[in-house]
Amino acid sequence: MDVIAKQDRMKDVAHTLRIAGITRPADVTFSFEGQPLTAPAGENLAAALIACGIRRFGEGPDPARPRVALCMMGVCQQCLLRVDGRLAQACITPIQAGMVVTAA
Ligand code: FES
Prior knowledge:
Structural class: alpha+beta
Low-confidence stretches: none
Mean pLDDT: 88
Strand order of the largest sheet: 2-1-5-3-4
Bound molecules: FE2/S2 (inorganic) cluster
Number of domains: 1
Order of helices and strands: HEEHEEE
CATH class: Alpha Beta
CATH topology: Ubiquitin-like (UB roll)
Largest sheet: 5 strands, mixed
Distance between the termini: 27 Å
Shape: globular
CATH architecture: Roll
Helix content: 10-25%
CATH superfamily: 2Fe-2S iron-sulphur cluster binding domain, sarcosine oxidase, alpha subunit, N-terminal domain
Strand content: 15-25%
C-alpha cells in the first residue's frame, strides 16, 4: 500500500472513531515514528493517535503487552512518548502542527 493510500485509509479510520457533528479546529499534520498523520489542532495526542489507528505507543517489559494510553488523565504514565525530543504524556499534550513524535 503506497503512502497516500495508507494516509487516506488512516483518515477514514480517524473519522469513523471521532464523534460526528462536532465542530473542530482545522486538521494539522504531525508524525509518529516517521509516519505522517493528521488530527484537529489542539486534540490531545493520545486521542489523536488512537483515532489514527495507532494501538502501540511503545514496548513494555512484556512484548505481548505494548504500552498505550490507559487512564487518559495524566496519572498512569502509560502514554509516555517523546515529542520533539522531550518526554511527554500523550494524553495531556495538545496536537500542534509539525510535532515529531516517537516512542519514549
Ligand atoms: S494515559 Fe495515563 S498518563 Fe496518559
